[in-house]
User: Which sequence fits this backbone?
């Protein structure tokens, strides 16, 4: 297994990002989206991100094997320093450290961008994702029972939070 490198995503990466994500839309509860993301919607999502909300990709042997992003947590101005992370790894490459590398990189970027806190919204059944976050210092901030429904069953959401250390410039 070769190492992955993490870099900022480009428009040319969007088909691979969408392929990775849409697998989970159709086959998992790690996203509560129920219809595959269209290329047009993915481009709009990408365009809504910018320097304060990066989208990254994990690359191994010139192939995109995962992606991550920091997104605004909410749209109201008072939330400007809070971000929500997303990490997705190609479904056939799980448990190889790709997700961890993406999350570690997002944490570093969030600190560099002077964000105050990162929120992770995770389906309660996604033990691997919860563990990946808690081993990096995220703590449970909320548990919302039966707030989603997919595959004809109710789903719980765990909110985890990482407070980022503030440094004086």
Assistant:
């Amino acid at each position: 297994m070769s190492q992955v490198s993490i870099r900022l995503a480009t428009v040319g990466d969007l088909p691979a990002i969408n392929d990775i994500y849409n697998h989970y839309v159709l086959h998992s509860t790690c996203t509560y989206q129920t219809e595959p993301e269209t290329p047009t919607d993915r481009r709009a999502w990408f365009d809504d991100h910018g320097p304060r909300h990066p989208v990254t990709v994990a690359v191994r042997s010139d192939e995109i094997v995962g992606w991550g992003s920091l997104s605004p947590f909410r749209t109201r101005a008072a939330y400007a320093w809070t971000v929500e992370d997303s990490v997705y790894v190609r479904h056939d490459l799980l448990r190889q450290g790709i997700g961890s590398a993406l999350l570690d990189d997002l944490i570093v970027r969030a600190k560099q961008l002077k964000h105050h806190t990162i929120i992770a919204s995770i389906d309660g059944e996604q033990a691997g994702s919860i563990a990946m976050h808690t081993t990096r210092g995220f703590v449970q901030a909320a548990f919302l029972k039966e707030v989603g429904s997919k595959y004809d069953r109710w789903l719980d959401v765990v909110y985890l939070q990482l407070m980022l250390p503030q440094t004086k410039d």
Notes: The first strand starts at residue 5 and ends at 8. Helices lie at 14-27, 39-48, 98-112, 127-134. The chain is about 30% helix and 35% strand. Strands lie at 5-8, 55-60, 63-72, 82-89, 117-123, 139-150, 153-163.
